[in-house]
Amino acid sequence: MAKSFRDKLYALARNYWWCWQPDVTSIFRDLDAAKWRELDHNPVLLLESLTEDQLEQRARESVLHSRVNYAYRRCEEYLHDKNTWGALNAGILGQKPVAYFSAEFGIHESLPNYSGGLGVLAGDHLKSASDLGVPLVAVGLLYNEGYFSQQIDEDGWQREIYDPVSNHRLPIQKAKGLDGKDVIVKVDTRTGSIYAQAWQVNVGRVRLFLLDTNIEQNTPEDRRLTARLYGGDVRIRIRQEVILGIGGVRALAQMGIVPNVVHMNEGHSAFATLELIRQRMNDDGMSFTDAMRETTEMCVFTTHTPVPAGHDRFGYDMIDEHLGPTADQLGIGTVGLIGLGRVNVADPNEPFTMTVLAFKCSRRANGVSALHGMVSRRMWTGLWPNKAEHEIPIGHITNGVHLGTWLAPQLAEVYNRVLPPDWKHRSGEADTWKNFESISSGEFWEAHEALKQRLIAMVRRRMITRAQRLNHDKKELVELESLLNPEALTIGFARRFAPYKRADLVLKDVAQLAGIVADSERPVQLIFAGKSHPADDFGKGILQRIFKMSQDPAFKGKVVLVENYDMNLARHLVQGVDVWLNNPRRPLEASGTSGQKVVLNGGLNCSILDGWWAEAYDGLNGFAIGNGRIHSNQEIQDERDAKALMKVLQEEVIPLFYDRDEHGQPHNWIKHMKRSVRTLGWRFNSDRQVMDYVMKGYIPAAGGEYCEMDRFH
């Protein structure tokens, strides 16, 4: 039976494929642009808000019928295409896919299941796996209140707002088991059972399953287990991770999904390995030792945290309460299980560490940049006491970003003129970008300027909304309508306000910064955005300091702090800034991906040589802060980096931006933009990243290598 116009719209809305298809996104926007923005770009809510008559009227006015038919047909062809990279290169995963576990997934702002970089990376991984046709399913938790919405009060202090989201208002559906019933899993603890229901999110060809404890089988306390991402105490954290790992594997089993490979994105999901071992013991009659060996062969682990304090640790009582029944079923007891999470198994004072469990139960492990791989090998040498540091079996696969999600559609049209016809399908290959620098400088710069105007318009809207919420007077609202100068060098800084990211490094010498932004001949403006963890008052203090500087007469209108950083604001920022500022305390930035998004859109990075930038910078594709060396004294290092930041701004960035030709174009600046895209666009791309995981991780873990000799040397 042929689908109706409305049915086709709902079919498009319920698969997040639409969110990286600009022509489909424009259909929803054209139905009602004001509502589309008001409803946080949620197509399901948008369609529910329109009556049949309203929908038909808008379709006629915007000539939508043919566009919807074309989009629906394209989506169907995409979903059923058998001629993909994955079909050719990852056939062994076809019947038994990769199961990708993560505590958060940043797919789109309408699904608030992410807090920052880790989740957005996971979302980009799924989208590239879908585009490449890699057989992969994903498992996470469904947070009923998501991460928080951020409000900045009159004093510049962060306030967290949690808005419950009803599942029926999201583009998701209940997952069904082999018996056709809803998938509900149970995990036993010493103090009772925890239940979770699985929901399915369609991300192109990839199915993402999210577990939700807000169901009637649970106690009131456990119903709130999955209410908030990274909220609550250590007890809530371990219960969430038990549901994610053990519950996630059980949910897949109920649906008849038998993974060939399990990929743990950070240590939060490491308990999955215990359930995999238990299943092998139960199903195949294996001993614990044999089942663990078989499980370890199929597991891939990616660590993201170069700071020891950033790894989840639990004491004996917590492990016994929550994993005691599992330990008994494995036949190793709580003491034996805790040993799997300790570097020094015999040390009774060492807590159980999720990362240690993940390393011990994975044959293949990696950091997320070359530098982070080195830091991780150094950090975890204790796990391999008989190996030299360079022999520690932790490699690296550098993170990348999803082109369809982060590249501005306006620029994609410009790129179409110089790149091969199929360039979007081969964006992770170097050869695709080889002719990029032949792009028209004038057209490239004009598109960039338009995107900067778009960013400034959004910043103005958000600042006006905040001012209205705080009942500011009409005069200030009028002033905000002309906030920021579209002609000025615009520097963006947006990320978590974690202390090591040093959002306030640029404030080390306030007088020098005041002189830079006060230069009317070469104006400079800075846009800040980001959230601090709800429990991190130090981070909130950094945020407040930047806010107060933005209110100082010397900086007002030239330094702006925009509240509620999310994927929507991130898109506008990475597509519109001239320069992306990144100044973490080296080597604490494992990778960082926001600057990679800027690359795709022609912006230039000005960064400490840390994370991905340490392997990306070539002297002509952006700017380096300092020389990559680390002082043993942290205060001296901060002082040195602050001086290096001011030096590069004053001696390299600003002069290059304002070196204009007779047409007013910064010709040499545009050369740097072109080189940045050509040299970095393919390398720091999630298609390349996923292809690396497939070839270096998934296929070996699935036993699909056709040649491997190194281990015999």
Automatic annotation (TrEMBL):
Residues 8-111 form the DUF3417 domain. SUPFAM superfamilies: UDP-Glycosyltransferase/glycogen phosphorylase. The modification N6-(pyridoxal phosphate)lysine is found at K597. GO terms for biological process: carbohydrate metabolic process. Keywords: Allosteric enzyme, Pyridoxal phosphate. Belongs to the glycogen phosphorylase family. This is Alpha-glucan phosphorylase. It comes from Planctopirus hydrillae.
